[in-house]
Structure formats: C-alpha cells, structure tokens
C-alpha cells in the first residue's frame, strides 16, 4: 500500500522466519529488477523506472551507491528495453556514492517490449522474440486450429550450449547446435495446459524448473527429459522462479502477490504473503473489530485478513468452501459482500454465481467467531435470501439485539435476527428472517444504521425512509432530484445529522431533530465514509479524471482538510482504520488523523492518506520547531513534552546508522526539556 503518495522499496525477508528484515527505500518509481552483486554476496543491485541503479548492503540495510543513467524508461539489470532495443549499461567503478552511468551500448535491436532476456555460458544475451545478432530462432505459426506457439520466456543452460524457451501453447523447447555451422535443432517438452510463464535452470544445469497458471512447479530432469517431478497447489499462477546459488532452495512468485520458498522441489518451507492481489475487489474495505485487520477479497472464494500495522497477511477465510478451478470461462462463486457486527462476534458474507442460461445463485452466510480456533466458523447458510442481487447489508450496532439488514434489487429490505440471542455462542443459535420491508414498490439503493442502532435509514431511489427497531416508518426525507447513492449517519456530537449523496451530484445533510434539510452542496461525491472514532467524515469527489478529498464535520461549514487531485481515477472503496496508539501531537491540519488512518482503493492500488509523517523522531523535531516559534512569539502557549512519548521510545530502538548525528539529537532533546525564563516567570 502507499503512504502519502507512491512509496516503492526493496524488502529483505528471512527465508526461515518469513519476517521482513529490512525495507530498502530510495527509489521514487517502480523497481523493475534486482540481482545480487556477483563480486560480493552481501550486496544487491536494484534498478528502477526512476532512472537509477542502486547498490545496497542488504544485511545491514544500507545504501552504498546510486548510479543514475540517461535512460528514462524502466529496465532490467545490465539490460534495458528502450525503443525496442536491449541496452547494456556499464556501471563505473568509483568511491563516490553517486556516479552517473554514461556508457551505454545497444546489444539487441528489434526486441519486443514484452520480451525476456537471459545470460548463458558463451552466448552473452538471449532476447525474445527476435535479435539482430548472429542467430535468430523462428517458429512457424501453428497449423492446427487454436495453436499458439509464441515465445513467453527464456532461460540459458549454465554449463552447456542449450537454451530453453517457453510458449503460449504450454510447450517448452530446448534449442541446441545453434553455435555450430549446421542448422540448429530443438526438442519439445509438454505438460502445461496454459502458457509457460517462467523457466529457470538450476545452478549445475541438472534440472529445469517451469511454472504457469496451473500453480504447479514442474522440475524436468535435463538428461532424462521424460522424467519430471511436481509440486502442486502453490496458490496463484506462478510468474517467476529463482534458485539459490547452492541449489538447495527454490523460490516462486505468484500472481496473488505471494512468494513461496521451497526445499529442492520437495516441500514448501516458507510463505511470504503480501496483500492478496485478486482479479478485483467486490467487497467493501472493512475492519475486523477484534484483530483490527483489513478485510477484503483475497484468494478466489476467500476473504483475507491483513494486518495494516504489521504489513502482513494474518489468514484467509474460505467462504465459498469449494475447490477453485484455474480455467477461464468457468462460472464459479464469488464473494461480493462482507460485514462485521460491532463486537466482531459475527461476520456476514454474500456469494453469488451467474451461469449462462440460468438464474443468479445467491448465498447469505453468517459466521460466528470461535474463541478456540481464533477464527470464524460457519453458523447459518441462507440459500436465495432475496429474489435478486443483494446491494448492501449492515449489522445493527445496538448491544441489545443481534440483527442484520440486507437490501436487494427485488425492491425489499430484510431484517435477519439471531434466534437465540440469550446465548449467541450456543451451538443451536441460528438466524432467521424477522421482517420484510419496502416502500411503494421502489427499489432500495443503500442503508445505514445510526451509531446507537435506534434508527435505520434506507434510500428508495429519490426518497430516504427512516425506520425504528420495531419496524415503524418514522419519517421520509425529501431532497433535490436524483436517486440516493449513499447514506451515512453522523457520530458522537453530530449524531443528529444524516448525510446522503445523489446521482444528481448533490451532497445533502438532514437534521433528524427537525426532519428538514440542514444544508446541501452541488458536488459529485463518489464515496462518503465516516470515521467511527470521531465526528469526521471523508468525501471523495471525482473531477477531471482525478479524485479530490474533503474531510469535514456535518455541523461545521468549513472542511477540516482538503486535497485536490489526491489520485488519478475514481476512488472505489475506503475505510477508516484505528491506530494502535493515538498520536500525541501533530500539525493542526492533520489532527483528523490522530485516531485513525484513511485507506482507500483505486482501480490500481490500495493507498493510505496520512498527512502526518510518523517517523521515530517526528514529534521530537516538531517540538523543537514549536519551541523556536514560541521564542519569537512570547504569547505562544508552551506545549509540554508528552510523558512516555512514542517518538522517544522508538528513537531508542531505531538503528543508529539511520538517525541524525548524536550531537544534533542530544542538544535538541535537552533544550526541549528546559523551561524558558519567560515561561517560568
């Protein structure tokens, strides 16, 4: 995820503990390649689209050298695809930390921008699909219907003159005799039913590893081509394979943002899982009240519980509970909705499947948290809970009742009640429909409970209806033309307000005490999100292909914070995540982030808007600046240094090589503890 803009880094993980050891930051754009320094096994090179090659000591997490070059596009180590050429970049030897790499030479021309490159024993570089050097390998298009033999990947044998290439038709071809006067030859290996995504020879060349969409690591014996070993069910499609220098460990990266470490194709020894990258996020971004983990779509048919504070996947919860088949064109169940109750005792999910020529299949599932397994267990499954697609659902926050409300395109909202509320943990407790509601045969679009659960608001096209827990229609609220898209109750001191957005680009605020429109403003709000720990609300507005952010309180006319062009594209999902510890002090414009952080999802990435730079010595430096301002302004109020400051605690545990000089920190810290003579008087 991204904090205050795009943050890219090279992370160093332990292959045994799976923990992140170092986070090497310095690149300002996409990191496109990493490789160990062949002359020093404790160093690693990284290259980036920011136009630099950086040399790191990855054991200590220290940047050794930065080497800018004149190529403006992303490239691979020692080679770059630029203007469809493969270019070698000579890295000069120098003692300076920053040395520009000026010596460039074109190695191959007419190279596809989506091609691959590999180094061999005698052949310097092999590129795909064509080269301008001594040899070119061609394959005629397949004559059979549907045959696809385009090149997808390449790997050179480390000891012999042999090149392995992967193809779209799932075949692997081993090319030989290309360095001789006679015509080259090739043999064919075939197991993959989809395209071969990656190939890698082991260091001694005794085995060839391949991977693809099947999520199976295949190990081919080089001297016995018909003999192969398999390691199946590794997760997402295999996109890359790496082998340790001694050949004892294999490493596979996957399309679901996972790295698997394998002991010589025998067993999985470690898994490093980032935020699971699926085909799309259908659920909202939600926070598990117990673990404070971010919950959203994960593996197909699963929900992932991801710790934002530890930047680590906690676990995947299997919702569909069916084996997922990795094949295009199959209609399989997808998790489309998820919601927690306020205590985290219950989880509600909706899964659906659309099959050609048949009706939409929908399942509503209620999951109870099990203290023994520390996970959610399936309690109730409701088949076809509505006659049409479920649009939204939410739990009542009232401590007196355990209730879920769902709304659907079938024109109704339903209240689901736990049958035995006296003992919610009892094995016999189950859910049933308690009430079915509607309004003049209009289709509902959104719903929301008030903070205490005493009111339920349901938007029926252009009408907002307000219901009591006994299902009495209390009132209807009018608003300017346009269907209601979202509803959100105010919290704490602003609990008397109800906010809504409409398709006619209106943001409206009603006063529930007077049942009248308090204010409205013409703005295209694509997403409205309330902070559960404060009165603050965040509104994302779409304008000119970008999204703007406004943070405000419903009862105050001026926004607390605004940022134009926060990101490109439309914000699709957002959630406020509580902090582990409340910030003790920060800039005035960022006080709305004292208790929570705002995470939001665009089409391409998950981001966090955190205007407060939370570094180990941020508060200490901020205190120093405030004191300097206080000396120039005698009327300024002196701010006391917080006791047990988080910054000071983290300062003591921060590695010394990333801190400012001790003399600078010491003098500044001592001055922060002194009381000026004017303040003493």
TrEMBL record:
User: Which Gene3D superfamilies does its entry note?
Assistant: YVTN repeat-like/Quinoprotein amine dehydrogenase
Residue ranges constituting the WD repeat-containing protein 75 second beta-propeller domain according to the UniProt record: 285-605
Primary localization:
nucleus
Single GO MF descriptor: RNA binding
Highest taxon above the source species: Eukaryota
The terms describing its cellular component in GO are: small-subunit processome
The keyword Cell inner membrane is assigned to this record: no
WD repeat windows? 24-66, 144-175, 189-220
**Where does this protein reside within or beyond the cell?**
Nucleus, Nucleolus
Q: Which UniProt keywords apply?
A: Nucleus, Repeat, Ribosome biogenesis, rRNA processing, Transcription, WD repeat
| GO BP annotations, alphabetical order | positive regulation of rRNA processing; positive regulation of transcription by RNA polymerase I; rRNA processing
Matching entries from PANTHER family are given as: WD REPEAT-CONTAINING PROTEIN 75
Name of the protein in its database record:
WD repeat domain 75
